[in-house]
Write a structure and sequence with these properties.
Blueprint (H helix, E strand, L loop, with lengths): L8 H14 L3 H21 L22 H11 L1
Helix pairs in contact: 1-2
Length: 80
């Protein structure tokens, strides 16, 4: 099927270089890229969500910053 798409100039230039270096056509390179992307999308859809185990409790304690690993270590050491 023939269609028209707009492609960024730099991306098209890189695609042409890849095509020349591999002996493929620009069309074949674009088709391969689309197939790969669609296959990855299907893989993501089939992957089951990850469930992380949690323990009971009152949730995050006031003043705890999960982005501060040193403070978290100090807090865990103090509760031991």
């Amino acid at each position: 099927m023939r269609t028209t798409v707009n492609i960024d100039d730099r991306l098209l230039a890189e695609t042409k270089l890849l095509a020349a270096g591999t002996g493929k056509t620009v069309t074949a390179i674009i088709e391969d890229a689309l197939r790969e992307r669609l296959a990855r999308q299907q893989l993501v859809k089939r992957t089951a969500p990850v469930r992380l185990p949690t323990s009971g409790g009152d949730g995050l304690q006031p003043g705890v910053d999960l982005d501060d690993s040193a403070a978290l270590r100090d807090l865990m050491d103090a509760s031991s």
